Automatic annotation (TrEMBL):
Pfam families: GFA. The keyword Metal-binding applies. Belongs to the Gfa family. It comes from the Bacteria. This is CENP-V/GFA domain-containing protein. GO terms for molecular function: carbon-sulfur lyase activity; metal ion binding. Residues 8-111 form the CENP-V/GFA domain. Keywords: Lyase, Metal-binding, Zinc.
Length: 150
């Protein structure tokens, strides 16, 4: 499973928001938490993490979902498509929703998190699986290193 190579382009459902990414993904993830189930109106969210400075977002975005000092979710104001999140202040990373990218089908999740809240009919066979989240920044860095080494 090779890491897909940049650039990556994407858009929201209506096309008012356009995405362009110049860097390789840092990590791909599926999150089974209840928040993600509600946000996506489905069983889990799919995330492709990129360095923030490699991502260009064209068009207006609004925040939605649950807002906190360390977590912001961005949506298209017209079609209300969930586009990306910024998690952890000053982390320098953006959690792009894999589904808005044209390369979505090649962005195979490498890690699943929050399997504690997973719906019973979803089964994934991924290299890494966590009942909650990786418990430290070091653990996250190890996952990113593993992902880059594929
Ligand atoms: Zn839109
Ligand atoms: Zn989640």
């Amino acid at each position: 499973m090779a890491r897909p190579t940049p650039p990556f382009d994407g858009s929201c459902l209506c096309g008012a928001v356009q995405i362009h990414v110049t860097a390789a993904p840092l990590l791909t993830m599926a999150c089974h938490c209840r928040d993600c189930q509600k946000l996506t109106a489905s069983d889990y969210s799919l995330t492709t993490m990129f360095p923030k400075d490699s991502v260009t977002v064209t068009g207006e975005v609004i925040t939605g979902g649950l807002k906190s000092a360390t977590r912001r979710h961005y949506f298209c104001p017209n079609c209300l498509n969930f586009i990306y999140s910024e998690v952890g202040q000053g982390s320098g990373r953006i959690n792009m929703r894999s589904s808005v990218l044209e390369a979505a089908s090649a962005l195979t999740p490498f890690v699943e998190v929050m399997t504690e809240e997973k719906v019973p009919w979803v089964t994934m066979d991924l290299p890494h699986s966590f009942p909650r989240f990786p418990d430290s920044l070091e653990a996250l860095q190890t996952l990113m290193d593993d992902y880059a080494a594929q």
